[in-house]
Amino acid sequence: MKRFTDYLAGTKMTIVSGIFLAISLVLMLTDTKLPVDPAWITVFLSGLPLLYLAITRLFYQKWISSALLITIAMFASIIIGELFAAGEVAFIMAIGAILEDMTVARAKKGIGTLISLIPTQGRKLIPQENGFLEIMIPAEQIQKNDLLRILPGEIIPVDGIVVNGTSSIDQSIITGESLPIDKTINDEIFCGTMNCYGTIDIKAVQVGNDSSLQKMISLVKEAENKKAPMQKIVDKWATWLVPIALLIAIAAYIITKDIVRAVTVLVVFCPCALALATPTSIMAAIGQATKHGVLIKSGEALERMGMVDCIAFDKTGTLTYGDLQVSDVISLTSTEDETSLLFKTASIESYSEHPLGKAIVKYSRSKNCTLSEISEFQMIPGQGVTGVLSGKRIYCGNANFLEENGVVLDSSINQKLDSVRNQGKASIIIGEETSAIGIIALSDTVKENAKNVVQWLRSMDTDVVLLTGDNRLTAEYVANQIGITNIHSDLLPVQKVSSIENLQQDGKIVCMIGDGVNDAAALKMANVSIAMGGMGSDIAIEAADIALMGDDIEKIPYIKKLSNATIRTIKGNITASMCINAVAIVLSVLGILNPITGALVHNVGSVLVVLNAARLYDRKFI
Asked: How many helical (H) and strand (E) elements, i.e. helices and strands, does the chain have?
């Protein structure tokens, strides 16, 4: 039955219902009679879903809803032969339900996308007399303490500890860190992250539902369940609207002895305009936002955004571009200038696939630097690269790599490295034969408008917090540039969720702004969430209430202004619709209105509400 009534309540059948109601109105105005009034079709198509909804809410959910009042009015109108009035109230409510469904429907693909990231198999190592036997097994069969081999480019199927080999791991899906992290023996790695370069052997520590990725999926589901859907205003009031309407209708009948007046009271009491007040305003606001590159998924998001007093930002891809740039080229000898150092480093790194190397090559080309062929290139995963250029051995990598190859690093060089690290930058040391000749530092670039947005939010008495998976030094470096003092760094997804919960427990209405898979659970937990759509992951966009189609965070002030205006319009529409209903009730009791004219008054009220809501679409907010 539910499937059938859902079909009748759909857009297609509602349009058919409206056509038959219009035919009934034309016949009524032209005083034309047919064997069967077309309004009967409208009553069936739009009225049956209302009847089913009223009964299920009353008997199964113990809930007196607005659908019950409309159903009573519809049957009362039928009993006294006013079919048009019965069809009209049913049709208007069907329109309101469709509009609301269009505004509150939330995509559910985010969880499915997260689940698709779970590796399906792993390469298990079985000890043999002469080494290990490698076999591929389904991921769900991997047990704790199993030995697994991870080749370059493979997704890690469990949480584990490296027991052999070194590599760089892209763990942005879990931590949001903008750079691959070098891993060696005894380092921890996470399920769902990618092994970029070297082959490593790991021991499984957390498997199945205990893995980081599975816990993240659980966090997203739990956070979604903790947010109860906003109940319709009409239904909140229905518990007292229904008995009041019945009492007034009964009183009108007792006093006037006129059943038509009593039925008219029921017809005009139906909250048709009230039902349209919220969804039409929200649809107009969503249309307005879409024109400006903002996708708002629900009316709840608009309402909550107006109440936000704390905004938590992710760092990478939100306040920064998420794109590594060369920030410093530091020569360590008098014989090397910036051009020479960049030439040597980029020539070696042009053979590498590491993100730091690619960024250096890109920077050198922007400086019109011509690169040279090298020989004997070698990459040591997680450490660096080396090759021969013009007969000299060049090394590019971290301090351990250079020292292991006989390059001397004195205290002055270490001081320069510490200075670079304190600015939250990544660094590559360049050595030639046994001498260190330079340092190239790289950093993510802060968005030019980030500081202005933070200042605007502060001027609106809104707290600003930074939540990031990056290390403390990197987080502080970025935060200092844009004026954020409340910093939470080195956060895993569960810790981001905890940070949001702590802010909420302090009485804050929190808006979370992020762009990565690792932000999904925190986006769900926040009172309202915004995803950066330009470079943000599909999962973050699906998890968020609002998505920016680009990466312009200056749209956040616009969203807040739009939210406030929408709430004012909704309240104005509700007030106007209640006033119209109050006047119509008095006129019905006095006998000035009958069910037909009462239904037409309903239409006037509904039109006024829609027109007022439509004003939101073309208003200027930016």
From this structure: 23, 22
